[in-house]
């Protein structure tokens, strides 16, 4: 079994095409287990100001990355000009990550993925402020999730604690950016890699991780084998 811990952030531009690719990966390799993990590029507004000087400057610089992300995106979905004209500062990670984690609590990994993708589409395609709780609530209400259950989970302090535990896990893996895939707890696939390369890497890992299966031939003596003893090759039947 291959388990992938998929670390990403709702405001991460390269996570948008990577999430689309991981859905394709799961279609092709249906036996893999994908676990969604939070990573915050800018948890609070002051983090954007610290990194870029101000939130206004943050938006300018981050939008300069959208061109590369749009080229990386298989569907080229980014609405860059729309975001340039949007009258709100670039969103932070906190509310969106908690919203996705709340979705996981009530609807599992697919619930998380549904809300995560919807939040990213709202930002990158429709240029909505996914830091705004009204925007987030509207997105959840349009989903298949029970809105009241989601609200309870969103405001539950345990949900925030689960997001923060993801941050601790990212620190354990010494991750400095996203998207990132941790496969079976020990292999790293870093960045928004092409679909073919992701699948090839996972198949290579599958081969390495495949268990050794002992086949017993009942027609042979149970102790028939060859071994090395004192530098000599000895076979017994």
What topology emerges from the helices and strands here?
Layout: E1 3-8, H1 15-28, E2 33-38, H2 45-52, H3 55-72, H4 80-85, H5 94-124, H6 133-141, H7 147-155, H8 157-172, E3 180-183, E4 187-190, H9 195-209, E5 225-229, E6 232-236
Helix pairs in contact: 2-3, 5-6, 5-7, 5-8
What does this structure look like?
The mean pLDDT is 93. Helix 2 packs across helix 3 (55-72), helix 5 packs across helix 6 and helix 5 packs across helix 8. The longest helix is centred in the middle third of the chain and has 31 residues, at 94-124. Strand 1, helix 1 and strand 2 (33-38) form a beta-alpha-beta unit. The two termini are 36 Å apart. The protein is built from nine helices and six strands; from the N terminus they run βαβαααααααββαββ. The protein has a four-stranded mixed beta sheet, with helices on both faces. A two-stranded antiparallel sheet has the order 5-6. It is 53% helix and 13% strand. The protein has helices at 15-28, 45-52, 55-72, 80-85, 94-124, 133-141, 147-155, 157-172, 195-209, and strands spanning 3-8, 33-38, 180-183, 187-190, 225-229, 232-236. With 237 residues, it is an alpha+beta fold.
Kindly state the mean pLDDT as a whole number? 93
Shape: elongated
Number of helices, where a helix is a run of at least 4 consecutive DSSP H or I residues: 9
Uncertain runs with pLDDT below 50, 5 residues or more?
none
Strand percentage: 5-15%
Radius of gyration: 23 Å
Calculate the terminal CA-CA distance, rounded to whole Å. 36 Å
Describe the main β-sheet briefly.
4 strands, mixed
| Element pattern in H and E | EHEHHHHHHHEEHEE
Residues in helix, %: 40-55%
